[in-house]
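We modelled the chain as a single entity of 134 amino acids. Its sequence is:
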Amino acid sequence: MTAADFLAFYPQFAGVYPEIVLASAVDSANLRFDEFGEDAEDARRLYAAHRLTLYAKTVPAGMEAGGGVSSFSALASSGDGTKITSKKVDDVAVTYASGASGSASSALADLAETLYGQQLLSLLRMQAYTRYVP
């Protein structure tokens, strides 16, 4: 998978800055999932999108430079895997689940943090692949 292939599938990541971040996510994804057969490219795309979404969460507001995404926070929240676990109407109370599950292995825990990672977890389960190396 090339960066162009990835961006054709997920154009919302086209403004990731600096460009080395996109290249690194794609390179990292290409090193994984060889044993997935026909699902390998899907897994690679999801992994790269997951990594880029986590990266976008680390960029402070106002630090988007070089004509990058107008708001990294919008990109970060677009793939946010946060789930509401409880709510209360009177006196308004909301509880969000932590993305990391206590039952998940530590190597898989970060995948629960984004929607892309959650989709990748589904692929991992379908493949019965337990040797994931972050």
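As a brief sanity check on the tokenised model: The chain has one domain: 3-127. Residues 3-127 form one domain.
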